[in-house]
Specification:
single chain; 151 residues; mainly alpha; Arc Repressor Mutant, subunit A; two-stranded antiparallel ribbon; 6 helices; globular
């Protein structure tokens, strides 16, 4: 197979990303998590062990308002909860709930399953080379959850 023209790279990456995420979302819907979107997963990853809405905005590279809206959506879905900060009772910390952790575990399993299918189709060496390349050139100094200026 001949390699694609270099100018095809962004379209191929976007298409592969979309197909991968769509397959994972289909599996998550089957597993009892309908309506999950990529930004929900990015936000849960950014929350990690806990953070405020302001910190979530910084981690995602979005406004405080956008972070607060995302947090409210995740809370309504039962994926995060707000806890009072013991050091500052006025501050609320976002924490991933058991349901949210279950979602992340199922999501990770679904991604692994999809990448396994890639390996079966393209071969381990090609998938490994792709992962190495993306890890080398991918971040541009940003957090892996920062999509702030990408629309």
């Amino acid at each position: 197979m001949e390699p694609a023209d270099d100018l095809a790279m962004p379209f191929l990456l976007m298409s592969a990303f979309r197909a991968l995420v769509d397959a994972v979302h289909e599996q998550l819907a089957h597993d009892g998590f309908p309506g999950i979107r990529a930004h929900h997963g990015f936000a849960l990853q950014a929350i990690g062990a806990g953070c405020t809405s302001v910190e979530l905005g910084d981690r995602l590279g979005v406004s405080k308002q956008a972070a607060a809206k995302t947090a409210k959506t995740l809370e309504a879905m039962g994926l995060v909860e707000r806890r009072t900060n013991d050091r500052d009772r006025r501050e609320r910390t976002l924490v991933v709930t058991r349901r949210g952790r279950t979602l992340l575990e199922l999501s990770a399993a679904a991604f692994r399953k999809e990448i396994s299918a890639w390996r079966a189709t393209a071969g381990d060496e090609h998938v490994d080379a792709t992962l190495t390349t993306l890890a080398t050139v991918g971040s541009g100094g940003r957090s892996h959850t920062d999509l702030s200026d990408w629309s």
